[in-house]
Design brief:
CATH architecture: Alpha-Beta Barrel
CATH class: Alpha Beta
Shape: globular
Distance between the termini: 8 Å
Mean pLDDT: 90
Strand content: 15-25%
Order of helices and strands: EHEHHEHHEHEEEEHEHEH
Number of domains: 1
Radius of gyration: 17 Å
Structural class: alpha/beta
Number of strands: 10
């Protein structure tokens, strides 16, 4: 993706009322490291409660971030799986994100209702999302079909997609914190992946990442090495496809 040469695209996952303070802290921390543009992935209705009803100040913060150059994207609807899929798909869902694989098991109508309901929640909060990232990157055929007619772009673990153009390879580097093994192995993998990245370095963060010193150390190492890269949002990447 030569048009984005020397770029870093940082996404902050799981932005919702329960993580709001931590996400705001991470956003300030990224700014301290020279990352002036971030893609914020917002869960519209965790526990089926619109986020702005519980935290009006979060909606104000998102608006401020967007005015400063950040992108705000939709991150599922409630970020929780409510129906099991087929045996083999459910096994893959557990590997991808356990109970976060929200759209696995939903049929086409259920998928569309969840996506559109989340979009309405964001719009009621004054947010006009252009893009979508599925929780745990767990996409289904029904979800892809819905997104193709609803959003400008959607992102997977390895590619960035637009409905009207071919997708582009863009592997994401992210830490794992759910088990001791992931907390031990993912930091060196992220460090190595950053060294091997080409024109585009795509880095994903989660609120829990800052709970673990090894993870913080790996992220700071990557961000120091990316000082000369220009920060871009997923909205900007999609526009450049």
């Amino acid at each position: 993706m030569t048009r984005c040469g020397g770029a870093i695209a940082v996404s902050l996952h799981d932005v919702e009322p329960a993580t709001f303070e931590r996400c705001a802290l991470i956003r300030d921390w990224l700014n301290d490291h020279g990352v002036d543009r971030v893609t914020l992935l917002v869960i519209p209705a965790p526990d089926l409660h619109p986020f702005h009803d519980r935290r009006p100040d979060m909606a104000e913060w998102l608006d401020e971030c967007a005015r400063g150059g950040d992108a705000v994207a939709q991150h599922g609807f409630q970020h929780r799986q409510v129906r099991r899929g087929s045996a083999h798909r459910q096994l893959l869902a557990r590997v991808q994100g356990r109970e976060a694989a929200e759209f696995v098991g939903l049929d086409g109508d259920e998928t569309r209702r969840a996506v559109l309901a989340g979009r309405r929640v964001l719009r009621l909060a004054g947010i006009q999302p252009r893009g979508f990232v599925a929780p745990a990157y767990a996409y289904t055929a029904a979800l892809r079909e819905t997104l193709a007619s609803t959003f400008d772009w959607w992102a997977g673990a390895g590619r960035l997609h637009r409905a009207d153009r071919p997708s582009t390879t863009a592997p994401a580097l992210g830490l794992g914190t759910s088990t001791a093994l992931k907390r031990w192995t993912s930091p060196p993998i992220v460090r190595a992946g950053a060294l091997l990245s080409g024109d585009l370095l795509r880095l994903e963060l989660h609120p829990a990442d800052l709970d673990h010193p090894r993870c913080i150390g790996a992220l700071e190492h990557v961000l120091r090495g990316a000082r000369r890269r220009a920060a871009v949002t997923y909205d900007e990447l999609a526009a450049a496809l």
